[in-house]
Sequence to fold (185 residues):
Amino acid sequence: MRAAGPIDPPARRSQAATGLRLRRVVAGAVLCALCSTGAVAGTVYRWVDEQGKVHYAEVVPERYRNKAKPVDVTSNAPSAEQQREAGARAQRERALAEAIAPSKTGPPARVTSTPTASRPAPIAKRPAQVPDDRTDCRTWQRLYLESIDCFDPHRTVGGGIKPEAFERCNVVPEPPPDRCRLYIQ
Fold:
């Protein structure tokens, strides 16, 4: 039961605003639903361009209109022709695999080690040299900048460094400020 008496104006305004918002949301949802059903109702065509690329669209360019064929988008099942092609391809692949596979009745295949020429060479770390107390300042600075350049592609968004960077890059400390002045090039 409502209490007798007038409703205060601010409460009436908030009720009206809420009702208006609700009507707008419902109208927007109905509009979206109507728009989305129109896209499904169109006919989709398939055609192949000069480069052999397959295209699907509702609108076909003028020069491909004679090649374009309508596609049934509701059916995902392969056609009988596609099933035959897949079966033939599977049979060819099985025959090829049997021809490549070693015979089950013959002796086991001998495993040989890979020759050293085909093994990948170990990755050389950058910079190749690490400075020590006898390194001059210009060389130390060059090595320091080269180390920074090596680590840069391995930095994460948060500023960290990925672990694989340490397999490829040498850590070069900043040149000592008491002995070397950093030169800007």
